[in-house]
Design goal:
The chain is of the alpha+beta class. The protein is about 65% helix and about 10% strand. The protein has two domains: about 1-215, no CATH class; about 220-290, Alpha-Beta Plaits (2-Layer Sandwich), CATH 3.30.70. Strand 2 (about 245-250) and strand 3 (about 255-265) form a beta hairpin. The longest helix is centred in the N-terminal third of the chain and has 26 residues, at about 1-25.
């Protein structure tokens, strides 16, 4: 009776997903392209720079790689089964949008792993170079998928679930889990390869973060000048950006001084600096990095 109910639930869920997939893909073709491209790059990194050299990896792929090294079980099969289990477990806790793109990404990576089973790889003794390049490639592929709002499954699924339910710190717990996987890998691939794997995971993490934030970064500019209106006019007409006037008071003089605040690209900040140097050399300009800017004219909220 219970088995029949579960089968019915699975069929209904499958029908629901099959109906909305064409709608989602049509409305989000950019996400589709990003997930396909990112999945291909990530899989290439795994199959060309990790598996041939018996390096460990992080997350579910890392566990699957170790089992593959130890028992020779198919890597695509292990990755596919592990992600199916995790998606089933967290199905009701994740947003449908995330679930659909995760299912698509996992299925694509599983297929690509099988197709790239005999892909050529670099024959070299420079293991450190290989592991860094592999980490960068895998990190870039994952970052492209994350940036588009998708996921390649793995430990992202339970960590997102636990973060939503219990408010745990994603980065800290992800680090702990991956350290356990890399520690266990020393008994399978040796201490040297395990340490190299740690370097690869670190390179991959840095690349993921930089890929996600690369196009969202802006420079936060604060300008104190005698002719504030001229600064605002230059930012608006020449740079095509908006600005905000903040009220401030000089700490020494006690005089009111308006401060112009704006968010610019790196090139625009250089142009503004050159303009101030020529027109108002006694002005003050403060430049700091804004890692992410969300809102109209910048990154959308969704």
């Amino acid at each position: 009776m219970l088995q029949g109910h579960s089968s019915t639930l699975v069929r209904r869920s499958f029908k629901k997903i099959s109906r909305i997939l064409p709608v989602i893909f049509k409305a989000e073709w950019k996400t589709l392209f990003a997930v396909v491209f990112g999945s291909f790059v990530y899989t290439f990194g795994v199959m060309s720079f990790t598996v041939p050299f018996r390096f460990p990896d992080s997350g579910v792929t890392g566990i699957a790689v170790l089992i593959n090294y130890s028992f020779g079980i198919s890597l695509p099969l292990l990755v596919g089964i592990a992600n199916i289990v995790l998606l089933t477990w967290a199905w009701r806790e994740l947003q449908l949008h995330v679930v659909v793109w995760t299912i698509f990404g996992v299925a694509l990576v599983t297929l690509l792993m099988r197709l790239m089973g005999n892909i050529p790889f670099a024959h070299t003794d420079q293991k450190l170079l290989i592991v860094i390049i592999g980490g960068v490639i895998k990190g870039y592929g994952s970052g492209v998928v994350f940036k588009a709002g998708g996921s390649l499954g793995g430990l992202d699924i339970p960590i997102l679930y636990l973060q939503k339910k219990y408010g745990i710190e994603i980065g800290k717990y992800s680090f702990y889990i991956n350290m356990c996987i890399l520690g266990a890998s020393a008994f399978v691939v040796g201490v040297e390869n395990a340490m190299l794997g740690l370097v690869g995971v670190y390179a991959s993490s840095l690349t993921v973060d930089n890929t996600i934030s690369a196009f969202d970064r802006r420079r936060l500019i604060l300008v104190i000048a005698k002719d504030t209106d001229a600064v605002v006019d230059y930012i608006s007409t020449s740079l095509g950006r908006g600005s905000t006037i903040l009220s401030a008071t000089g700490g020494y003089s006690g005089e009111g001084r308006p401060v112009v605040m704006c968010l610019l690209t790196r090139r625009q900040s250089v142009d503004l600096k050159r303009h101030l140097a020529e027109s108002q050399p006694r002005a003050f300009m403060v430049v700091s990095e804004a890692s992410e800017v969300v809102g109209k004219g910048f990154k959308p909220w969704r």
